[in-house]
Amino acid sequence: MESAQQEGNVCQGCDKKKPEDTPNLTYYTEHHTNLLLCDDCIAKIEKEHNLKCPKCGKVVGVEGMTEYKTEPMCYSCEEKEMDKEDRAEKRISFAKKNWKIWIGIAAGVVAALVFLAR
Ligand SMILES: [Zn+2]
Ligand SMILES: [Zn+2]
């Protein structure tokens, strides 16, 4: 019997109480972790840290992920999205401004025609 199989054989990640459920407890020290973990929890941590941004495919990990309009992505993609939105908004406001200018010109033309028709 190995000493690792003795008391305290509970995964610190998922708190599996029954030792027979967690036959492979390992001291996991990667990614600033220092816990006795089962294979499932280690796999979960590995997965979280190998999380890829679905938008750009960069491995950013769970800490590097954020959400923009319920869409998961990394921070640099979020920045890009916000930038895009900002530009789109500016385009819209520009079009609105133009629309007002055109109305103004049309009104001016109508006024001039009315003036000339007299
Ligand atoms: Zn676990
Ligand atoms: Zn990204």
Distance between the termini: 111 Å
Mean pLDDT: 86
Radius of gyration: 31 Å
Oligomer: single chain
**Count of individual helical segments:** 2
How is the main sheet built? Answer: 2 strands, antiparallel
What is the strand arrangement across the widest sheet?
1-2
Q: Structural class of the secondary structure composition? A: alpha+beta
General shape: rod-shaped
Query: Helix content range of the residues, please?
Result: 40-55%
Low-confidence stretches: 1-7
Query: Order of SSEs, N→C?
Result: EEHEEH
Number of strands: 4
- Small molecules bound: zinc ion
Number of domains: 1
Task: Indicate the proportion of strand residues.
Answer: 5-15%
Notes on the protein architecture:
- The protein is an alpha+beta fold.
- It has one domain.
- It is 46% helix and 12% strand.
- It contains two helices and four strands.
- The strands form two sheets. Strands 1-2 form a two-stranded antiparallel ribbon. A two-stranded antiparallel sheet has the order 3-4.
- It binds zinc ion (2 copies).
- One zinc ion is lined by residues 11, 13-14, 16, 37-38, 40-41.
- One zinc ion binds next to α1.
